[in-house]
Design brief:
The protein is of the alpha/beta class. It contains 13 helices and 15 strands. 38% of the residues lie in helices and 23% in strands. The longest helix has 19 residues. The structure holds zinc ion. Zinc ion binds next to loops.
Length: 328
């Protein structure tokens, strides 16, 4: 069925079937829809990978320049979920994250702290001031959000598969579990809040991870998920040039598909909306350079000349969204 869909699509795109089969030969696999279980997909965005191209772990560093590099991105004909298939096997994805090191992320720490402070204010306005302020940040990486929440009086924990990142975070006195959420097998009903900031799109099996998040949350506990919106106006305007299309992103949710998956995992959605984030001007310009060098490079020179590199800029293109959901 999948082969047929791909074959049908190739006549209107530049991808050929040989490319897809060579991806499978190099350790990629087809996956079924994680939301409805169907294996009925149509091509949404063509692959930009050259066949057999070796990709090293640096593609998976979260601030990498891997914008625009991705395999075939498909859409489930049954439920509309957009996801990457064929793609690396789950075990291979996990091994890459276990070894990831990303010095550039540390550089951008200040912008992230500003963004996370904004996120935490919103979170506290939703959750009120629960007596049991136990929070778990899934995919915590260097623990920036764990740090922000701890400073605001939360008993905050992170869970993260990168050994390097966990070592860095623990060295700063942060509470971290090493591994994926599923691997660490934390006690049931033990957290009042679970957060996933820009993480769900990287997960090989997000529905399974959401079920696990529901298990570790106490009844009526809050789950906060922040991810990109493939159906946003900006994403639609940008089309195949939308910068979030990259190999490390396995799922491209919309408000509708994420809501459906959360409900399936035992949550009730209370709020969906966009929130801006802060980037320092120098970092923002370097991201523009990665995307459109002819605009980005002169912009970087200008910002450096005006000594504006460290100035925080609030960015909201409407293509990132947050969902607040409650465990039923
Ligand atoms: Zn589906």
């Amino acid at each position: 069925m999948i082969e047929e869909q791909v074959t049908l699509s190739v006549h209107t795109t530049k991808v050929d079937v040989a490319d897809h089969s060579s991806l499978v030969d190099t350790g990629f696999e087809y996956v079924r829809c994680n939301l409805c279980g169907a294996d009925n997909v149509r091509l949404r965005v063509s692959s930009t990978l050259k066949s057999g191209e070796p990709n090293d772990w640096q593609v998976y560093a979260c601030t990498c320049g891997g914008y625009g590099t991705h395999g075939p991105i498909m859409q489930c004909q049954q439920c509309g979920l957009v996801y990457a298939t064929p793609r690396r096997r789950e075990q291979d994805v996990l091994e890459l994250y276990e070894t990831v090191e990303d010095a550039l992320y540390i550089e951008e720490r200040e912008g992230r702290i500003l963004t996370f402070n904004t996120h935490l204010r919103k979170l506290e306005s939703f959750t009120g001031a629960p007596n049991h302020r136990a929070l778990l940040d899934v995919g915590a990486y260097l623990g920036v959000f764990v740090d922000v929440a701890t400073r605001h009086g939360w008993d905050a924990w992170g869970v993260e598969p990168s050994k390097w990142a966990v070592t860095q975070a623990r060295a700063q006195g942060l509470q971290m579990h090493l591994g994926t959420l599923e691997q660490t097998k934390l006690p049931a009903n033990s957290f009042s809040v679970v957060t996933m900031w820009d993480v769900i799109e990287h997960l090989p099996n997000p529905l399974r991870t959401l079920h696990e998040a529901a298990r570790v949350l106490e009844p009526q506990g809050w789950l906060v998920v922040h991810t990109m919106d493939i159906e946003s106006v900006f994403a639609r305007l940008m089309g195949k040039r939308w910068p979030w299309l990259m190999e490390m992103h396995l799922y491209y949710f919309s408000r509708r598909t994420l809501t459906a998956m959360l409900e399936k995992a035992g949550f009730e959605v209370a709020w969906v909306g966009t929130q801006g984030r802060y980037l320092r001007a120098g970092y923002l310009a370097s991201r523009v350079t990665a995307l459109i060098p002819t605009i980005g490079r002169p912009l970087e020179h200008l910002i450096t000349a005006l000594k504006l590199r460290k100035v925080p800029v609030r960015v909201n293109l409407g293509d990132l969204f947050t969902v607040y959901a409650r465990k039923r």
